[in-house]
Amino acid sequence: MELQDVNVDNASDRGQAQESASAGVDELTERAAAMQLESAPSPMPRSPGLRLQIPNPFEPSDQPVTDELMQTVSPVSSGQLVAAASALPQPPRFESRTMQDRRNFMRRYETYLTAINALQTQWGGAFAMPVGACIESRTKRMVARYEFNTAPHLITEEQWIGYFMKANTPSHVDYASVDKAMKKLQMRTAWSEPESRMMNLQADLEAVLDQFNLTEVAFEHEQRRIVKYLANALAPASFKAAIATKLTLHENKRYKNEVVPFCAWMTTLMREFMTWEQAARAAATAGQSSQ
């Protein structure tokens, strides 16, 4: 009888030990899971008032652009995420000397910033490289020495932006030189679409104006002069002569003073002219074949 009691007690002790061990394993599992949850990175909350679009520092504005308005890769920035870093647009690099080089850099930076802004969402985004970080180191030291008379690291982002913005101010307005350069402007007729012909003519026109840094000034104050440049560059000669006649009519007066309506008008008339020209050629070819 005593032996049976001992066996029962031993079995009871083993059961309690197994239950205690099982409870210990469960407790350790729960603790490990809790530690994993605590250490897991949580998504960075975004402020309801967060501006998702990075402003273009080279766009004219009434308020000056400061360092704080531009999201950058600076370590002091917070609440910013980098997504798909290997596929991010690459910023332009400035290592040139002339004012035209500065204007070209601003255009490339604007293109880069447009691509970066396309990645800004409510849940994530990409940093924009600040303007000052896009300057090659030797060029930066030279500009800092001769333009600012200080060390490169003491120049603020706003000062770098101002350095490039100076290139947008024409140093000398000489329309006599522009008139001479525009004499070489000529519409290319290699394309079968009127839109292609006009777009290439407009691009060639702006290329000449850009050489003199007068694109914005000319469009603001000299639209009549620009229309004259475009009208003189039209081709073929028969189409150019027809447009010259139409521009003498009072009903077409507005086209002589406004560039955009003139270009739209030219595209429409050119489409009609090209349709008539193709029909005339087909008729002439058919007449020669019948003979």
How many domain units?
2
Fraction of residues in helices? 55-70%
Major sheet description: none
Oligomer: single chain
What is the H/E order? HHHHHHHHHH
Binned strand content = under 5%
Task: Provide mean pLDDT, rounded.
Answer: 81
Secondary-structure class: mainly alpha
Number of helices: 10
Principal-axis shape equals extended
Feature tags:
mainly alpha; disordered N terminus; 0% strand; 291 residues; extended
What order do the helices and strands come in, and which of them pair?
Blueprint: H1 2-39, H2 99-117, H3 137-148, H4 157-165, H5 175-182, H6 194-211, H7 215-221, H8 223-232, H9 237-246, H10 259-290
Summarize the structure.
Helices cover 56% and strands 0% of the residues. It has helices at residues 2-39, 99-117, 137-148, 157-165, 175-182, 194-211, 215-221, 223-232, 237-246, 259-290.
What would you note in describing this structure?
The chain is mainly α. The chain is 56% helix and 0% strand. It is built from 10 helices and no strands.
